[in-house]
Amino acid sequence: MKPNHVVLAVSLTAVLAACGTTMSNLQPGGYLSSYDGLQTTNANSRATITSAVTLNPALIQVVDVQWRAADEAGLDEKERAELLVQLRHELIQQVARLPAAADGRPAQLRAAITRVETVSPALNTLGILLLVGPLDRGGVAVEMEAIDPATGKQLAAMRLGYFAPLSDLSARFSRLAPAQIAIQRAVKDFTRLLTPQEPTGQVQAAG
Questions:
Q1: b/e string for 91-105 if b means 16 or more Cβ within 10 A?
Q2: Alpha helices, DSSP H only, in 97-200?
Q3: Average pLDDT of the chain?
Q4: pTM of the model
């Protein structure tokens, strides 16, 4: 490999690695029952509300999972259904892992996929052949909330846009794999909000 090609490969790889894993300037998708009080971080790529009350995982139900993404991703009905099934499955699985709280309150979970970025396996294969690494990445934006079934009050909520990390090469050669990885990450982040905790880090009111 020629020296100038080595420099190019290293430079492009460094640029790609420097890219963040969150979608910046993410706008509300219109799915949550309320956006009031959400606290935003990471260039508006993440906004959350943590539950102030203890919830009982045994009484938490996933009642609604919707597709709210535009058609730009070009996904067919089967692909959309696959991602929605995964979103519901991840929610159920992560709720089951929450610590038991027999005295906790019930909650209903609602979730929507509001944006999808797929990858081009062909483009990423070309990047590998050129020795610069994958050139395309994908991910999802989701909105999720926990609702008090008795009052309809929002207990916890999150909107998040997340790209699968560039370091995960296995996700670069499957059209939906990055979105699936991003859904897993997003749901894990959301279910942490279902347990009351002290806020960490600096936040500012979401606009």
A1: beebbeebeeeeebb
A2: 121-129, 177-192
A3: 79
A4: 0.77
